[in-house]
Amino acid sequence: RLVYAGNLPFGTAWQDVKDVFAEHGEVARVDLPGHSDGRSASYATVLYEKESDAQAAIRALHERDFQGRNMVVRLDRSA
After folding, report:
1. Contact (CB, 8 A) for 24 and 61
2. Whether 77 contacts 70, CB under 8 Å
3. pLDDT tens profile 11-21
4. Nearest-CA neighbor of 47 among 70, 75, 10?
5. Do residues 30 and 46 lie in contact, with contact meaning Cβ atoms separated by under 8 Å?
C-alpha cells in the first residue's frame, strides 16, 4: 500500500502530491521529506488505504508529467 513517487520538482508541496494521487484512491498519508533550506526532496511516499488503489495509482501515474517532470511511481521497496 506504500507507493514511492520520485523525480518530483524541488519545492513541491505535499498537498499537490496528495491531490494527484487521491484521484486513484483514498490516501491515508503523504510523506515529503525536506531539506534544511526549506525545499522539498525530489521524492515522496504515499500510503493508500487499499492495495488495489496503490496498484491503480502506479499504473496511471508512472512516467506521467507532474509540474514539468515525469514521475517515477512504484511500490516502495522499504515497505
Report:
1. yes
2. no
3. 899 999 999 99
4. 75
5. yes
